[in-house]
Amino acid sequence: MESLRARLLGPAPPRRGRQDRWAWVGILLATLVGGVLRFVRLDQPARLVFDETYYVKQAWSLVRYGHEREVREGLEEPDVLWNAGDPDASGRCPTSWSTLRPASG
Q1: b/e for 7-30, b at 16 or more Cβ within 10 A?
Q2: Model confidence, pTM
Q3: Contact yes or no for 68/62 (Cβ under 8 A)
Q4: What's the pLDDT tens digit per position in 2-49?
């Protein structure tokens, strides 16, 4: 079994204990810095981003009305209304932009 393993994988690389430890320290440090940058103040967004602008409002209208709804006519900034605590930025039209777009994913 060992000869098959050596033939398929070649000789085992030499162990480098100190270099391996420093590599793991670097990986963990990069992970820690990335996690801090990502998760600090995550609960205090400055503004809505793409997913929150479209998908959250559509999910809310699906739960409340049973179908997706369009933004009301004449409403220039639905995000301002949504951020102010009034999530009813949708009008009475049951069609939505996502039902009109091609099914491309």
Answers
A1: eeeeeeeeeeeeeeeeeeeeeeee
A2: 0.42
A3: yes
A4: 788 888 988 888 888 888 889 999 999 999 999 999 999 888 777 777
